[in-house]
Amino acid sequence: MRILILSDGIPGHFNQSIGIAKILSEEIEVVFEVVESKLKFNALRSISMQLQKLLVINFNLFKANLILRLFYKIDLDKFDLIISTGKKVAYQSAALSLISGIKNIHAGTLKTIDKKFYTAHITGLVDRQSPNNIVTTIPPTKYKPIKYANNHNNKLSLYLIGGDGAGYSYDLSDWAMLATNIELMFNKDNIKPIIVTSRRTDKVHETYLYNKLAHLCSTDSIWFHKERRPLDLEKIFNKVSLIFVTEESATMTAEAISSGLPTSTLYPDKHSQKSEFYNHLIKYEKMRYIKRLNFKDDLTSHDYDTLISDTIIQIRKDLKKNILEKINI
User: Fold this and answer.
1) What CA–CA distance (Å, rounded) separates 105 from 86?
2) Where are the alpha helices (DSSP H) in the chain?
């Protein structure tokens, strides 16, 4: 099967789409290509989105063609399936599918459009208006779950570090508390950290963490502002026994959970409890997919659910089965 992944350029979105393609590849032979959605008049992006929202009301072939005129043409002749994630490409995906007759899968909440225009529609919550809705607890990711038994003797822990965003705000005192607790875990349990910072990490904060922790970190650590080494999370997941992730990032959290390894999210005192993602975190915690820890918490004093990988494996199997049924494979 030849798959077009329609990308809005947001890594968290096209990585979800790649995750769907990789899940399908476990059953069928798959070749996928990521193609970025490009508006002809990018300066009018906001206006074009509003226009698309109007055009998908009582959607038909004529309106689909009008939507596609807003974008540079994509050659669909070599593709058998379209996968998209995120609202910025949702209507273009529907238009491409309607005009070409190619089946499509979309991940993410949709408004305005009749959801019958998606062969499969993947969401985290039930959408009763979507006839082809597939509900999954964990968003699709590129990573297969790892049995904890395979890694439990590995004396390495992974810290996925983000930065301000999604109602979270970090200052040096937060990172000081985290650094102290990472050092405590190293001294107490001989668990060496792998630190991975990101583009959202404030450069000053990264430098602080580097100066405090570099001497005891694994060489697998990646400091975003110091070195632009490629990140191979799958390789790192297979080395560590525990994962800690700053919880402002829905993508990093989902990827960490998808590893099947014991995962804790880390939060500072300054954080909002009003976002939709915060509700997902509470749900994940209640289902024992994660532990939520404040930066000041002792990282060594918590019992971790070492059987979570079985649950994540089943979630992935169920998602694959439901997608294959929707696209009739």
Assistant:
1) 11
2) 11-25, 45-55, 61-68, 87-100, 148-151, 172-189, 203-213, 233-237, 250-258, 276-286, 308-326
229 secondary structure, DSSP code? P
Q: Do domains 2-135 and 148-310 have the same CATH topology?
A: yes
Residue 205 banded pLDDT, cuts 50, 70, 90: very high
What kind of fold does domain 2-135 have according to CATH?
Rossmann fold (3.40.50)
User: If you ran DSSP here, which 8-state letter would residue 28 be given?
Assistant: S
pLDDT digits (tens, 9 = 90+) for 294-317: 999 999 876 777 778 889 999 999
For 148-310, CATH gives 3.40.50.2000
Phi and psi of 105, rounded to 5°? -125, 130
pTM, to two decimals: 0.89
Helices and strands, number each (H, E), in the chain: 11, 11
Do the Cβ atoms of 184 and 226 come closer than 8 Å?
Answer: no
Q: Where are the domains of the chain?
A: 2-135, 148-310
